[in-house]
Amino acid sequence: MGAVSLHTADAAPIAEADALTALSALVHDDLLACNQVIVAHMDSPVALIPQLAAHIVAAGGKRLRPVLTLAAARLCGYGGGARHVDLAACVEFIHTATLLHDDVVDESVLRRGLASANAVFGNKASVLVGDFLFARAFQLMVADGSLDVLRILSAAAATIAEGEVLQLVTQNDLSTSEERYLDVVRGKTAALFAAACEVGAVVAARPPGEATALRDYGTHLGIAFQLVDDALDYAADQAVLGKTVGDDFREGKITLPVLAAYAAGDATERAFWQRTIEASEQTEADLDHALALMERCGAIRTTLDRAVQFAARAKADLTPFPDSAVRQALMGVADYTVSRVR
Q1: Against a cut of 0.85, is the pTM above it?
Q2: Structural domains present in the chain
Q3: Which of 97, 117, 238, 331 would bridge with 130, disulfide CB 3.0–4.6 Å?
């Protein structure tokens, strides 16, 4: 499908595809330092720990969440040392730990186009190394010494777990409302985006209003990001997606494309969704039929339109901050987030 366009009057003068690269370039030195902290804290005398951790790090990823922490600190004028670097590494450890756990729960075999850690090292090792990375994250929080930082990041870690459990509870349940689905998204994805941005303002000792604005930016950016990911599961090819297309369908996950198609369906189409999603009775041909039903009712477009709305809210959240290269790049990242479906 065609790329989503988000060029509005206040859009950043940065090409969407280059927005994250531009933001990363603005915090280049800090990001290099963050990567050094990550490598140092992955070390352990238990050889399997750095080996497995290095596997998932080597799989790539754009370091979006730690980049947001570094950029938020830069936006707020932080220049007091390396706290933002250590906390960006902390954010990445929380994210990586959740990836390890999620792949076990989802029985995933691919992560960013490569074999997932659980496929290579097994479920037990993946869960335990995920626990190790969570512990490393909390060590970095404690070393920072700020109760506000500890409150923000520990709350995010708890909210992520709640979001994952809520997703498990809603799995295979077509009566799930869109708001309930968004509760899952706010928990499992947006909470860490929000915390990553908010701590940037906290380390810079900015007023509560600015911290709130950055938290809101992260929340709305994270929701848009997950909405696009959920659309990509039905709209991308495997090389683009980095995991097996249709995983959400096979697992009976309740995402907005499914909810939109179910709501728009007639009795026969609803019976199809009830069989494949609620009863988990699927044949080889069912994914293609699901894609056809989504195409017919515009379920992917509905999902992307909603993502565009949240991306626009994210950009509006940056209004309290004066114009700067970092602010322009953060706005560009909101556009980039919803331009990933081709």
Answers
A1: yes
A2: 16-330 (1.10.600.10)
A3: 97
